[in-house]
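Regression test case RT-17, inverse folding.

Input:
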């Protein structure tokens, strides 16, 4: 397993990390993803650690805290061997203090996460969404206190717009608060919006990307093909409404090229899709998920080899989309040249 610094921080993370959204799954979304119990989760953690994957990502909102609880049980007795990333800010109830990133909410949410995870510190705490109703100075000063207390080691964001992330970084610099070193984002061959603004921002400001849904909400498994019905076993029957939108014809074109490259390399379609992401600028780690040992081992096979330049170019071309204004006029200007490889 290769390791990369998380953004401009000194924290070294594996290029593949494990998403625990399937742990303790319940409800219409997470129940459809999976309902891995503690015993099954411990086995998946075993496999990850054997492969060098030591970063595990979860969130308080995943199955109303059950994901954190199951992850905590799965890593019991080996806390020093793992890195834990969790997220907060999305609603956990109907009360006025059950959502957002106010000082009261963040402190209570962190204490609740520590209890569920069975640990006394969180390696990476991320804001799951931007809270426009709370001043960024209040958010950052609270995070500063959590870092100073030793309860949190690093802080990050998730699903922020470019202006939201930059506003937070500027305030952190102005007041000497901890900077967000990670941005957990949706990025895939079927969804390259991250490249328009957030990637250049991350490169400029030293914010590493933690990529969620690298297979485009299950669409890049190779099982969804032009002229064929959606497989009965696909989770998209229950979860498509919750995920990012994808143009079907564009998707079919991408999958056809993925299948061709997979045949050339002797790899699977998901492995090709994940490996492509690892070649992109600012990507620190790609979060993979799995309900079974077989799925996990297949996803772990996405590392340890590289696509050829020609194969990457074909994948770039078939997945490329025209950026919206104001990005398309300057996408080929010299400001992007320092990103290696360049944005296409």
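Golden output:
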């Amino acid at each position: 397993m290769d390791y990369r610094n998380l953004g401009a921080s000194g924290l070294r993370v594996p290029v593949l990390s494990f998403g625990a959204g399937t742990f303790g799954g319940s409800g219409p979304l997470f129940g459809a993803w999976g309902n891995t119990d503690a015993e099954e989760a411990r086995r998946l953690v075993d496999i990850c650690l054997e492969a060098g994957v030591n970063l595990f990502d979860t969130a308080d909102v995943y199955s109303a805290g059950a994901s954190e609880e199951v992850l905590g049980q799965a890593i019991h007795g080996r806390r020093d061997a793992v890195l834990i990333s969790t997220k907060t800010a999305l609603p956990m109830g109907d009360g006025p203090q059950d959502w957002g990133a106010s000082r009261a909410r963040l402190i209570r949410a962190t204490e609740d996460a520590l209890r569920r995870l069975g640990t006394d510190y969180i390696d990476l705490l991320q804001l799951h969404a931007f809270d426009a109703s709370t001043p960024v100075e209040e958010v950052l000063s609270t995070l500063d206190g959590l870092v100073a207390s030793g309860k949190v080691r690093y802080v990050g964001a998730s699903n922020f717009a470019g202006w939201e992330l930059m506003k937070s970084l500027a305030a952190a610099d102005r007041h000497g608060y901890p900077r967000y070193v990670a941005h957990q984002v949706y990025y895939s061959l079927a969804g390259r919006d991250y490249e328009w603004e957030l990637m250049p921002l991350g490169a400029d400001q030293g914010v590493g990307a933690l990529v969620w849904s690298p297979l485009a909400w299950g669409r890049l498994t190779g099982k969804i093909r032009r002229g064929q019905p959606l497989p009965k076993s696909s989770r998209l029957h229950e979860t498509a409404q919750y995920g990012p939108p994808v143009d079907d014809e564009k998707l079919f074109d991408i999958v056809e090229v993925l299948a061709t490259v997979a045949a050339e390399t002797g790899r699977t379609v998901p492995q090709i899709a994940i490996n492509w992401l690892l070649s992109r600028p600012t990507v620190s780690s790609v979060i993979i998920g799995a309900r079974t040992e077989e799925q996990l081992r297949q996803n772990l096979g996405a590392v340890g080899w590289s696509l050829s330049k020609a194969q990457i170019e074909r994948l770039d071309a078939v997945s490329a989309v025209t950026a919206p204004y104001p990005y398309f006029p300057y996408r080929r200007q010299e400001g992007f040249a320092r990103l290696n490889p360049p944005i296409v």
